[in-house]
Amino acid sequence: MIKVGINGYGTIGRRVAQAVRLQKDMIVTGIVKTRPDYVAESAMHDFRIFAADAKSLESFNNSSLKASGTLEDLISDSDIIVDATPEGMGRKNIETYRKNGLKAIFQGGEDHEIAQASFNAYSNFMDSWGKDYVRVVSCNTTALARTVTSVRKSFGVKHVSATLIRRATDPNDSSKGPINALEPSLKFPSHHAPDLQTVIGNVDVDTVAIKAPTTLMHVHVVSIDLEKQADQKQVMAEMGRYRRIMLVSGKSGLTSTAQIMDMAREMGRSRSDLYEIAVWKESVNLKGTKLNYIQAVHQESDVVPENVDAIRAMFQLMDDEKSISETDKTLNIGKRV
Ligand code: NAD
Fold first, then answer.
1. Considering only CA atoms, which of 219, 251, 250, 223 is closest in space to residue 235?
2. What is the torsional sign of CA 309, 314, 318, 319?
3. How far is ligand 1, taken at its centre, from the CA of residue 126, in Å?
4. Which of 42, 168, 177, 298 is most enclosed, with most CB atoms within 10 A?
5. Quick check: is 336 in a domain?
6. Per-residue pLDDT at 179
7. Is 293 domain-assigned?
8. 323, exposed or middle or buried, with CB in 10 Å at 0-12, 13-18, 19+?
9. Structural domain contains residue 40
10. Three-state SS annotation for 294-334
11. Using CA atoms, how far apart are residues 275 and 267, in angstroms rounded to an integer?
């Protein structure tokens, strides 16, 4: 049993904690919270809570919620920490993990350089085999890596070009909106292109991102120059072989991110999460070797199974195929009902 501590219990941390809890080969030793709020109150039912530091421990002591110690205590009881603290904090935290000889996983808000490898289960699972520090790439990069990898294996990929229409913030965040604007990334390519290359390797990539006033999902318009000619049926058949990609159709009423999220609710998914990348069948279009498609990305959850698989790679527990299918089984990934 791998003992997993979760540092940072926000959008990503709380989901990774629940996903780890469902695995047979790992347990959650505890989660780190900065303050005794409603999130800590609900977390108490499933996990031991540790305060971020002495000052935050004091705030727990002054409340009705009990903390089991601080991050230092959690570290001493864990084999690995999944760091899901806000963007940029991992840089400081890695020193603490290193000092304690502990493995750690970081998230996409950190730079690639923080870790020994960036991770995507379909693209480069084995690059993290036995590593001590790994970074699971961002929600956008995870989505692109999954679908690009699915077509790359059969048809080869010469060039990827993607327009990312990004949700402005997550649904539980009221500090950033409402934003009545579309905000383009002014740099071309946006940072997503080099990030994608950290997991898919040496493929030519161009990306541009536009922030939009929505909290539900991102939408990507993807255009790929394939090495071999293919038709729509063949591409959909390839994508369909991957459980973490879900082919959806406007004909069944799934015409926007609103209905896709509603479908996840109807499916009874935990927190209405959709771990799969939803690719609209109607959008899969080929002109010779040029492939176009549109995909929707549930930013709060697509990286969750990746964190679980990264743990298995780092502890050399099982190969990619086995790990992915184990994770998918526990999270109902690939099941529509
Ligand atoms: P979040 O703000 O929802 O959660 C971060 C949590 O860490 C919050 O609960 C915050 O209170 C807590 N925290 C703050 N200081 C802390 C400290 N010193 N010690 C412990 N906890 C502390 O952020 P998030 O969206 O979960 O993002 C976490 C990481 O995941 C970032 O690197 C982000 O870029 C990445 N990521 C986010 C998304 C997304 O869409 N939200 C998707 C993929 C990856």
1. 223
2. positive
3. 26
4. 298
5. no
6. 78
7. yes
8. buried
9. yes
10. EEEECCCCCCHHHHHHHHHHHCCCCCHHHHHHHHHHHHCCC
11. 12
The answer, yes or no, to whether any atom of ligand 1 lies below 6 A from the CB of 85, is yes
Residues 218 and 283 in one domain: yes
Note if the pTM is more than 0.90. yes
The Cα angle at residue 39 between residues 38 and 42, in degrees rounded to 5: 85
Asked if the structure places residue 314 within a domain, the reply is yes
Q: pLDDT tens digits for 159-195? A: 999 999 999 999 999 988 667 999 999 999 999 999 9
Residue with tokens 């959850």: 301
Confirm or reject: Cβ of 170 under 6 Å from ligand 1. Answer: yes
Residues 76 and 209 occupy one common structural domain = no
Q: Provide the pLDDT for residue 102.
A: 97
**How close is the Cα of 331 to the center of ligand 1, in Å?**
21
Residues 230, 174: one domain?
A: yes
Q: Is 170 helix (H, G, I), strand (E, B) or coil?
A: coil
Cα–Cα distance list, 142 to 148, 154, 167, 224 (Å): 10, 20, 15, 17
Query: What crossing angle do the helices spanning 304-314 and 11-21 adopt, rounded to 10°?
Result: 60
The answer to whether residues 129 and 143 belong to one domain is no
Assign residue 222 the CATH number of its domain. Answer: 3.30.360.10
Taking the C-alpha atoms of residue 103 and residue 135, their distance in angstroms, rounded to an integer, is 11
Q: Which domain holds residue 290?
A: 139-297
Please indicate, yes or no, whether residues 122 and 196 belong to a single structural domain of this protein.
no
Which protein residue's CA is at the shortest distance from atom 37 of ligand 1?
Answer: 12
In total, how many domains does the chain have?
Answer: 2
Catalytic annotation, residues: 139
Residues 100 and 241 in one domain: no
